[in-house]
Amino acid sequence: MPLSYRWVAVVFKYLVIAMLLLILISLGKALFHLTSSKAEDGAKMVKALAWRIGLSVLLFVLLLVAYYSGWIDPQHVVPKL
């Protein structure tokens, strides 16, 4: 594997971790607005959940692009008989 592909793989892994953290932060923000009693928090909760859905779809598309570009490979496990 050339050095440039290794560099892309490392950057891609950090990008996936960052996106997962953003998804968790969005879920936490939605939970906070769910438990709050202010009138405008309902709209803020929906907005946070919409961000979560958008980030999740973007992460899924990014994983597909990385797979078809050869940046990531599946880990095949052969079952023992």
What oligomeric arrangement do these chains adopt? single chain
Shape: elongated
Q: Tally the beta strands.
A: 0
Uncertain residue segments: none
Strand content: under 5%
Q: Helices and strands: which structural class?
A: mainly alpha
Q: Please tell me how large the radius of gyration is.
A: 18 Å
Count of runs of 4 or more consecutive helical residues? 2
Helicity level, as a percent range? over 70%
N to C succession of SSEs: HH
Q: Average pLDDT across residues?
A: 86
Report on the structure:
- With 81 residues, this protein is an all-alpha fold.
- It has one domain.
- Helices cover 77% and strands 0% of the residues.
- It is built from two helices and no strands.
- Helix 1 runs antiparallel to helix 2 (41-69).
- The model has no long low-confidence stretch (mean pLDDT 86).
Key structural traits:
77% helix, mainly alpha, 81 residues, elongated
Provide a compact summary of the structure.
With 81 residues, the chain is mostly helical. Helices cover 77% and strands 0% of the residues. The protein has helices at residues 3-35, 41-69.
Layout of helices and strands, plus pairs?
Elements: H1 3-35, H2 41-69
